[in-house]
Amino acid sequence: MKDTILIRLENPDKSEREKLYRLQFRAFALEIGQHDPKQYPDEKIMSKVDIESIYLIAEYNDEIIAITSITPPNSLQYSLESSVPFEKLKPKLAYPMERNNTAEMRNFYVIPQYRRQFTNFAFYFYMIGIVYARFIGAKYVIGKNNSNSLRLSRRLASRESGVIIQSGRVKYHVVYGETDNIIRSGFMGKMQDQIANELQFTLIFCPEIEKSILSTQELKIKL
Questions:
Q1: Residue 192: which domain range?
Q2: CATH at 44
Q3: DSSP string, 56-113
């Protein structure tokens, strides 16, 4: 029998934020070393940008096993602007990216044991985030990739800006792309590379049913 992972948007009242901020502490302070754990005695990492962001949550056996957040178009600030202003980035970008058409992909994290247990899950979870960004009006996405996530971006239609941000022990590359190109590139690659029983995943991104999936409803994926 296949395992089922539940993927959903966070509660509208944001009552889950405490759990998510603790998971961000685990990811970005304890695991990868972007932040010094001593600076967060309450073991929660949050920023002003998190308040505007929308979280996508994956659960397995009632445990949150993965998160990613999307800072929507027309937000006052992107997280990466703590290091480099968006206006200074724009000349380095090949697309006409503006605040009103660009979302920032952030806080992508899958608990390590589930990366091993569900080998293709991280890819699908990432792609659902991209599709949601498109659904809320983002023609383009931008974000920071460390060496691990950069490998995934390179497999898709993402571009590297050449801008590198050092944050704690982590070196981030600023990457960006057109949402339609990333989705097309990602799923064409999977359709060619993956075994037949995984093709069902591509169906959830058909435009006709996109709205029903990417609302407050829950999405179940079997692995």
A1: 4-222
A2: 3.40.630.30
A3: EEEEETTEEEEEEEEE-TT-S--GGGGTS-HHHHGGG-SS---TTTEEEEEEEEE-HH
What distance in Å separates the CA atoms of residue 151 and residue 145, rounded to the nearest whole number?
9
Which of 60-64, 173-177, 214-218 has maximum average pLDDT? 173-177
115-138 pLDDT, tens digit each: 888 877 888 888 889 988 998 899
d(CA 177, CA 158): 5
Q: Which residues, 6+ apart, have CB-to-CB distance to 136 below 8 Å?
A: 54, 70, 72, 73, 103
Q: Can you tell me the distance from the alpha carbon of 29 to that of 45, in angstroms, rounded to the nearest whole number? A: 8
Please tell me the total count of domains within the chain: 1
- Rounded Cα gap, residues 39 and 114, in angstroms: 28
